[in-house]
Amino acid sequence: MKDHILKVALGVDVSKDNLAVCLCRLTVNLAKEFEDSFEVSNDISGFKKLIRWLDAQVAERENLWVVMESTGVYHEGFVYYLYEAGFNVSVMQSGRVKRYGQSLDQRSKTDALDSRMLAMLGCERALPLWTPPDPTLRELKGLSRERSFLLKEKQIERNRLHSNQHSAYSNKRELRRFKQRLKLIAKQLEEVEKEMKVLINDTPDLKCRIKHLESIPGISFVSAATVVGETLGFTGFTNAKQLTSYAGFDVVLKESGAYKGKTRISKKGNKNIRRALYMPAMTAVRCNTTLKKFYERVKPTKAKPMIALVAVERKLLVLMYSLWKNEIDYDSEYEQKKTARTEVLAAQDRSNLALTSS
User: Fold this and answer.
1) 36: which DSSP letter?
2) φ and ψ at 58, to 5 degrees?
3) Which stretches of the chain are DSSP H helices?
4) Distance CA 142, CA 52 (A)
5) How far, in Å, CA of 258 to CA of 251, rounded?
6) CA gap 188, 180 in Å, rounded
7) SS3 for 110?
8) Does the pLDDT of residue 340 top 80, yes or no?
9) Is residue 208 within 8 Å of residue 327, measured between CB atoms?
10) What's the chain's Rg over C-alpha atoms?
11) Which member of 57, 68, 102, 245 has the lowest number of beta carbons within 10 Å of its beta carbon?
12) Within a 10 A sphere around the Cβ of 324, how many other Cβ atoms?
């Protein structure tokens, strides 16, 4: 029986209270054999019950892949438990799972069907193995998210205060409370940014790499720390294309027959990265000679100046990724040096060609 099994995958549909699971076996003739789906509670007792059942179904944990969809925070307890127990775990982004489900032409949607679909995905595809993020980077991400939330709350309170001040029914006590809340938010923002600096300064390697990113004109400490935190130190990215897609900077175009659409960024990605790079891009087009020339070259070809600014944001993100990977500072003359090297090599090629011809 075991000899004709190529792969075993457990699909897990995670919700706040329960885990719907389905086991799938891929046979040598590429048929799929399923165990009936069932549910366990999303807590320690449910985890233990599920692992006892898995040990009875699968002889070796190394031959089993557990596949689940990222669900904010509800999957985290289970995925850490499985990792510590020695299971192979893959945590898939919701967009990829959705596209796979659409390819199956599955119209109904239930927890049981979703777990079955995830099990099929685990059997059919070579999925990336999940590993826990670095604790320092995970904490940095949490702090950057908290800062982003506080900035949003600050703007909301400022708008409310402005509205109240210009209202015919303004209330002095209400105004005082608005101002007190704004002071509290400002104090908490200061505390969060201080904690980010302490966290990074206590990690020498991280501090050094952040300095590389800060060497880019327009990139502040907070901007660099936010991007590093949101990407968990650019882990899981093997090229710039994957990174820009993760941030929602990938360009999409829709055309069909006579209809000719316009190119735009997908925005199907991490909005916190896009938000963190907006002000740095505004500064870069004034202070960064290379990006200023790039912006001035792109701007006339676009219908709106904002499109050219988004292109600068994308350029900044790729530049940060390159400096982080290579552990080097920003070189403002890199483009000129690259052009000069290209011209020298071209001249050498022409000289060698002339000598060969003679």
Assistant:
1) P
2) -120, 125
3) 44-57, 76-84, 94-103, 111-124, 135-165, 172-201, 204-214, 221-230, 240-246, 271-276, 278-287, 289-298, 305-326, 334-357
4) 34
5) 21
6) 12
7) coil
8) no
9) yes
10) 26
11) 102
12) 20
274 class by beta-carbon count within 10 Å (0-12 exposed, 13-18 middle, 19+ buried) = buried
CB distance 18 to 9 below 8 Å? no
* Tokens 């130190």, residue located: 233
pTM over 0.85: no
CA–CA separation, 311 vs 175, rounded Å? 41
Token representation of residue 95: 């967009």
Residue with tokens 């003739």: 29
Q: CA–CA separation, 307 vs 251, rounded Å?
A: 11
Provide the 3-class DSSP secondary structure of residue 14. Answer: strand
Q: Which two tokens stand for residue 316?
A: 């900044």
Place of tokens 């670095």: 134
- For residue 230, give the nearest of 194, 277, 264 by alpha carbon: 277
d(CA 209, CA 329): 9
Question: Tokens 């350029």 correspond to what residue?
Answer: 315
Cα gap 253→247, rounded to integer Å: 17
